Amino acid sequence: MEKVLKLLEAEMSQVEQQFKHDLNSDVMLIRKVGEYVFSSGGKRMRPMLVLLTARMTGYQGQQHIGVASVVEFIHTATLLHDDVVDSADLRRGEATANTVWGNEASVLVGDFLFSKSFSLMVRTGSLAILQALSDATTMMAEGEVLQLISTCDLDLSEESYMQVVRDKTAVLIAAACRCGGVLSGVDAVQEQALNDFGMHLGIAFQFMDDALDYVADQAEFGKVCGHDLEEGKMTLPLIEALRHCSDQEREHVADVVAKDQLSDEDLASVTALIHRYHGIEYTRQRAKELVALAKDCLKVFPDSEARQSLSVLADYVVSRTK
To answer: What is the per-residue pLDDT across 116-156, written as a single tens digit (0 to 9) for each?
Structure first.
């Protein structure tokens, strides 16, 4: 992964500068909140995917910098809104923006970032990029609502949960990959391959988040472990455990997720159940399968340093610990 970061070092620096420039506003609070979220770390995977797919497909201009910044703008807006919806206190090991400035400021600055994103998309002059990213933001909102209505639903199937993940997380990653190819003018087959690569990778990324929520060290993962359970979210490790557990165990889980606040004993009992029925192992295996599918999608492109870097990035998704 270090080799990939080195390859993109100069371009990522340009993306960071572009993002800070685009954050400029006469309203100081907007700049403060936006810079706080942006500077709190993060993998910058989405802009990296724009840069790598553009490079792999032979793009020679400078518009990929702006597109990469826009994608991170959209992602940052969703983080602000997600933390309010989830009542999250920590993200990436730091206090969330809503904890520091309140829910109202977080929602409104998130709205600003979404609105500004569309202005920036228009400036690219590419209707195809505007279409890809605007479609993605619409589906992301649908995914958030799907997740909301599936809260505490112990009958949620893996297939239905996959739809939540596709809409909520994977569509933006797929759009980021697709946009790199659009800038290069790839053909329809290659554009679809880039979209499919990003979709498989995005689902795998979320599955790994699902697993890490139950097993990662809080100091390393950067957020409270078991937060998904506390929010009543049915993620893949729990869905897999519920497929195999007894009726009595299922009733216990139902009692736990219905609580407004979980005790350490509640979290420990459900986590033990997930381990008993191999929910973490199953989730990680599904993520590995999806990464393999993602890498297969790259075979329609000639071998290159950028293509190899995309494969390395895909492998990183299933090996990460935070």
So the answer is: 888 888 887 789 999 999 999 999 999 999 998 998 899 99
Pick the CATH number of 2-319 from 2.60.120.650, 3.30.450.40, 1.10.600.10, 1.10.287.110: 1.10.600.10
What single letter denotes the amino acid at residue 25?
Answer: S
Domain limits, the chain: 2-319
Q: What is the mean pLDDT of the chain?
A: 89
Q: How confident is the model at residue 221, as a pLDDT?
A: 47
Quote the pLDDT of residue 93. Answer: 66
Rounded CA-CA distance 161/188 in Å is 29
CA-atom Rg of the chain in angstroms: 20
Consecutive sets of 10 residues in the chain, 322 residues long: mean pLDDT of each?
Answer: 86 90 87 81 87 96 92 89 78 77 88 88 85 93 91 93 95 97 96 98 95 72 67 92 95 90 88 95 96 97 96 91 68
Query: HEC profile for the chain?
Result: CHHHHHHCHHHHHHHHHHHHHHCCCCCHHHHHHHHHHHCCCCCCHHHHHHHHHHHHCCCCCCHHHHHHHHHHHHHHHHHHHHHHHCCCCEECCEECHHHHHCHHHHHHHHHHHHHHHHHHHHHCCCHHHHHHHHHHHHHHHHHHHHHHHCCCCCCCCHHHHHHHHHHHHHHHHHHHHHHHHHHHCCCHHHHHHHHHHHHHHHHHHHHHHHHHHHHCCHHHHCCCCCHHHHCCCCCHHHHHHHHHCCHHHHHHHHHHHCCCCCCHHHHHHHHHHHHHCCHHHHHHHHHHHHHHHHHHHHHHCCCCHHHHHHHHHHHHHHHCCC
Q: Which two tokens stand for residue 292?
A: 């393999």
